[in-house]
Design brief:
This protein is an all-alpha fold. It has a domain of about 55 residues. About 85% of the residues lie in helices and about 0% in strands. It contains four helices and no strands. α1 packs antiparallel against α2. It starts with 5 loop residues before the first helix and ends with a helix.
Length: about 110
């Protein structure tokens, strides 16, 4: 499955809007209500398509976690690493410092 960038989605939206305007012009004068209904339909269809794509990605991620588990990796640790990699270095160090402080206070250090 190919991921689309924000630029790709914006280009697709602009293309869809241009198509709707062309259709409205051909239908007889570009009735504002017809254009608005067409734009609404377009937005709904795009949201539905993106929702389907999001579900497909979620299924793919689930499969990768299952594969990791099947090869003996600890999935909880992998999820923690994913979360840590999303953080910037300063935020990660701050959280680790707080965790160390709390562990020390509880006699777990």
């Amino acid at each position: 499955m190919q991921r689309r960038t924000k630029t790709d989605r914006a280009a697709k939206a602009a293309e869809t809007n241009a198509d709707l305007e062309d259709q409205a012009d051909l239908a007889g004068g570009g009735n504002a209500q017809t254009v608005a209904a067409g734009q609404l339909r377009s937005i709904l269809e795009r949201i539905e398509r993106l929702t389907e794509e999001r579900q497909a990605y979620a299924d793919d991620i689930k499969d990768v976690y299952a594969e990791a588990k099947g090869t003996g990796f600890d999935v909880t640790a992998i999820r923690t690493l994913i979360r840590l990699r999303k953080m910037d270095e300063d935020e990660r160090q701050e959280r680790e410092s707080i965790l160390d402080l709390y562990k020390s206070a509880l006699g777990m250090a």
